[in-house]
Amino acid sequence: MPKIGMEPVRRKALIDATISAIGERGSLDVTMSEIAGRAGVSSALAHHYFGAKDELLFATMRHILAELNIDTRRALRLAMTPRQRVSAVVAVSFSDDQFQPQIIAAWLAFYVEAQKSSDLRRLLRIYARRLHSNLMSGLTGILPRAEADRVAEATAALIDGLYIRRALKDGVPNAQTAIELIEDYLETKLTGRSLP
Amino acid sequence: MPKIGMEPVRRKALIDATISAIGERGSLDVTMSEIAGRAGVSSALAHHYFGAKDELLFATMRHILAELNIDTRRALRLAMTPRQRVSAVVAVSFSDDQFQPQIIAAWLAFYVEAQKSSDLRRLLRIYARRLHSNLMSGLTGILPRAEADRVAEATAALIDGLYIRRALKDGVPNAQTAIELIEDYLETKLTGRSLP
DNA sequence: TTTTATTGATTGATGCGTCAATAAAAAATA
DNA sequence: TATTTTTTATTGACGCATCAATCAATAAAA
């Protein structure tokens, strides 16, 4: 009984299903049938809306990235000082919306897939650049540019590293601990060095 | 024309071929035929020696881990002070043998696979524990235990994070830069706090 | 003659992508 | 308004390719 205007609903459902399927399997080795089943439709419909599997995966990663970006922008809007901007970027990466097993597993899986797909690689590069730039938007108000660059690089690496170790269920046990660890690093690098 | 005593030779060749295949493809999505072909044998022979594909992959990861362990032990033997022990562990992770695209791609791919395979997960946990313990072997001589724990955790996360970002060909451009970044972190955390 | 090394051929399973068919809504036409 | 036509939504069934794993066969060494 076809209702009209189903396309956006199905697209959303399929992307959500893709995330949860990847999260459960822990890799991109999920079948179109599995994803479609979770979304409550046939695999043929998934192909109808997304063409090939790659495109569905790509759309899924883009969706995750877009969500992260929205959250980040909102958090940055609330930050009043450069120091708060840095903390805001870190906090978003470990917020309840982002730092959940499904999303972490997806990140990891997409990092691997990016080795094969240049489209996906480009997407993840954009994330890396944006993260760096967001961190710099706060750090340049506190440190000289060269120094800020290094701290941004280290902070980004810390975020990615803590994500991975979380995927292994090893290392830091929760988001709060992860944030404290990075904040501790930032404190030792930033205190007593405020620009005039 | 079967020569005897081929087993160890073939096993080694197949594991090396697996690493290079994974390194090139950037994921574990390599066929047994591809691997066997690189090793100069038939896929049937690969099955003959390793049984199933999982076992070959497992043996490959174990081999990579063993190599890392050997290198680390050698480096630690040369370290004279606690501070040098910490640097030694970091240096090995970014040595020419370890910080090459093939090995990095393999690490990343195996991290993902560990989500599915509990055997592999156990193996990677051992690595994580060992890394932590190796770092602690130096840090406990410099910092109080709780503090040492945090620094070890952060250092491990930094190493993993820099590995990932390297896989994306983004972030730090080379091993030297990566080492400097971590050493910079360690300096700010360790200087002026030597235990009596 | 038994063991070790080796492979070509085959099988069976899996999974992507296609296609024709069905049906409801919307648009066009009478 | 009643009808026909087109568009949108949806799926079951199927073809086709890929690959892991097996097996029987071959041949050199012990």
Automatic annotation (TrEMBL), chains A, B:
Pathway: Amine and polyamine biosynthesis; betaine biosynthesis via choline pathway [regulation]. The keyword Translocase does not apply. Residues 8-68 form the HTH tetR-type domain. Residues 31-50 bind DNA. It comes from the Bacteria. Keywords: DNA-binding, Repressor, Transcription, Transcription regulation. PANTHER family: HTH-TYPE TRANSCRIPTIONAL REGULATOR BETI, HTH-TYPE TRANSCRIPTIONAL REGULATOR RUTR. Repressor involved in the biosynthesis of the osmoprotectant glycine betaine. It represses transcription of the choline transporter BetT and the genes of BetAB involved in the synthesis of glycine betaine. HAMAP family: HTH_type_BetI. This is HTH-type transcriptional regulator BetI.
